[in-house]
Amino acid sequence: MPECVCLLNIEYFKKAYSVIFHERKYLSRRPKAWRISFLEELLYEGWTLIRDQVHVAFSKYKDLHYLTLLSLLDNYLPLSLSIYSVIFNSGNTEQYIAFVLRCWVMFFPFKRHHYTKAPLAWLSNLLYWKELNHPFFDTIMNCLNIFDEYPVQNFHSLLRDQTKHNNSSEQLHRKARAIDTSKAVLLEFQSICSAPRKNYTFSWP
Questions:
Q1: Which of 15, 10, 47 is nearest to 29 (CA)?
Q2: pTM exceeds cut of 0.90
Q3: Average predicted confidence (pLDDT) for the chain
């Protein structure tokens, strides 16, 4: 999510990066995830310091560039920074649903492939389970943070990294099985050869 916001507004982020750090420092076209998150945190924290004054001074300003920047700083940055790390992990399902809807509103004008469909599919499934009074709906509402998508996303990243766009479905299937097998072998190897973790207790004299 933070990466998506950065790449869609890369020119602004490149300018901000040069101003914050050094005039000769340049942000690459494909920055690393940690650098994107760090830069977005800096921009949003800085924006909160001047937001009220800017709103008052430009309350009647209708310039498209200003409104685009305002939407980025006021909506997209806090959404991308908090939807998973704060809202999802806190288990606040009702607020998470509202944030997912806002994600769809954000992705829609940018015409992001699949990103415009995934939030609606999730909301549709949720409403369907609610209408059927399915026990899975209560599970999601009460235990949202146990449905962590990171393992799936991580596996997809590994699969994309080790395959080509023109691979057949059979080639993708074989590579996916090989990745899954290699991860299981690695975990078994680590459990046998690595020393058990120790918990050290430190105390002041």
A1: 10
A2: no
A3: 76
